[in-house]
Amino acid sequence: MGSKRRKFIKVDPVEAYATVGRLGIGDLVVLVCGDIEVTVTVNKLERSRQLSEVQS
Fold it and tell me: Which residues touch 27 (CB under 8 Å, ≥6 apart)?
């Protein structure tokens, strides 16, 4: 476990989408919505497919 660095990030769910780009596998994310906090661990990353279909 020594070689893995974990980030612990608190974000509003609205900001979570923008935050994903800075995350890696195993990072911890806390989604904060009012008094509710949900902690999730990143175990799979998917890049946005939005631009993948744009070809010229």
Answer: 6, 7, 8, 9, 41, 42
Q: Are strands 8-11 and 28-33 parallel, antiparallel or unpaired?
A: parallel
pLDDT digits (tens, 9 = 90+) for 21-54: 666 777 777 777 778 888 777 776 665 555 445 5
* Cβ–Cβ under 8 Å, residues 42 and 26: yes
DSSP assignment string, the chain: -TT----EEEE-HHHHHHHGGG--TT-EEEEEETTEEEEEE--------TTTT---
Q: What confidence tier does 56 reach under pLDDT thresholds 50, 70, 90?
A: very low
What residue segments make up the domains of the chain, in order of their start? Answer: 8-41
